[in-house]
Specification:
Layout: H1 9-16, H2 23-46, H3 50-72, H4 80-102, H5 105-112, H6 121-148, H7 152-189, E1 193-194, H8 199-202, H9 205-234, H10 239-242, H11 244-264, H12 267-270, H13 273-276, H14 278-284, H15 324-327, E2 334-335, H16 338-341
Antiparallel strand pairs: 1-2
Helix pairs in contact: 2-3, 2-11, 3-4, 4-6, 4-7, 4-9, 4-11, 6-7, 7-9, 9-11
């Protein structure tokens, strides 16, 4: 009977890599992910999207590290360090790219207007960003424990933690998709007005194409995360984990295509002013800036020779934004063209 101490990392590594890693396949992914790093940084500088570009770049760099680790496993299939590089790099890289797409949605909302928002911004940030941070921590911890422990019991604990992190990442993507769907329904069904400030964006063909591309990139990341969750849950020595073809197609290719789409339709370029002025636009839409002075000034009673403090009644001016004279003074705004905007 085999004892638990016999399940060393080396055996896990060999079980996971039953077939020798592809030389050409791994080099291609290393080269493609590496080439996109300076492109992402350049676009971030050009369009003042440093946070988005940095998040994308971090994910790309981790993908490069992951496939370098897998490439090194060709010569040393039982190497613990190389296996850690492969596992952690290819697990955490897409997590950062998922975090990058979460940064885009608030700016899309800004283009259409806060009237269509289904959630408060603070809840959106707390929930999705907290889930992303939790998934990254659990994935890193689970990946290290499952590979650095020499006993199967401890390694299995690490696998469970890693699977939990991937499941949280999948849940965050599902919540994000649900939020986007509710927002799309609101745009098509609610009869709110749009500020003409961003008319050049939401009426442009590039923006409509961007929405389709952005949705497709999100779906690719959902497929990748679901696949990798199943792979890790089945164990490193499972048949699905041993298939390099499935890994390349349902993991590497999905992440690569999603990143290419995000860079080809770079949000900072497509969304223009709404990307750099999201916070100021929310302030400009506030009601106090629309309020105008009363239509006339009260006469100065004290300057009148017939002034009587006890007998004079000051007229009361009723001011309500619901009155027609108020609404007519508002800036002209365009109504939503539901069929054309989404």
């Amino acid at each position: 009977m085999t004892s638990s101490t016999d399940y060393t990392l080396g055996r896990y590594s060999r079980a996971f890599l039953t077939n020798e890693p592809s030389l050409v396949g791994n080099i291609i992914f290393i080269a493609l992910f590496a080439v996109l790093i300076p492109l992402a940084l350049g676009l971030g500088v050009k369009y003042r999207s440093s946070v988005f570009a940095t998040t994308i770049t971090t994910g790309l760099a981790l993908e490069v590290v992951g496939y370098v680790g897998r490439f090194l496993l060709r010569d040393n299939p039982t190497g613990r360090t190389d296996f850690i590089l492969f596992l952690v790099g290819t697990i955490l890289g897409p997590a950062f790219i998922c975090g990058a797409i979460f940064l885009v949605m608030p700016h899309i909302v800004t283009v259409y207007g806060d009237d269509f928002r289904s959630w408060r911004p603070v809840w959106y940030q707390l929930l999705l960003y907290a889930l992303t941070a939790a998934s990254i921590v659990l994935e890193l911890a689970g990946g290290l424990v499952s590979t650095m422990q020499d006993t199967r019991v401890k390694a299995d604990i690490g696998i469970h933690v890693l699977t939990t992190g991937l499941a949280i990442q999948l849940v965050s993507l599902a919540i994000f998709v649900g939020h986007a769907v509710l927002f799309a329904i609101a745009v098509r069904t609610r009869h709110h007005a749009l500020d003409i400030k961003f008319a050049g964006i939401y009426n442009s063909g590039s923006f409509k194409t961007f929405l389709l591309a952005f949705s497709f990139a999100t779906c690719l990341l959902v497929v990748r995360t679901a696949f990798r969750t199943v792979v890790i849950a089945e164990g490193y020595d499972s048949s699905i984990a041993q298939s390099e073809t499935l890994l390349f197609i349902l993991d590497g290719l999905m992440v690569l295509l999603a990143t290419l789409i995000l860079l080809a339709f770079f949000p900072g370029r497509i969304l223009g002013q709404s990307w750099s002025q999201a916070s100021s636009h929310r302030v400009s839409r506030a009601l106090p800036e629309r309020i105008q002075a009363p239509p006339y000034e009260l006469p100065s009673a004290q300057s009148s020779p017939t002034y009587n403090r006890m007998g004079t009644k000051h007229p009361v001016v009723s001011y309500s934004p619901k009155k027609s004279n108020y609404t007519e003074s508002l800036p002209q705004r365009n109504l939503v063209d539901h069929e054309a905007l989404w």
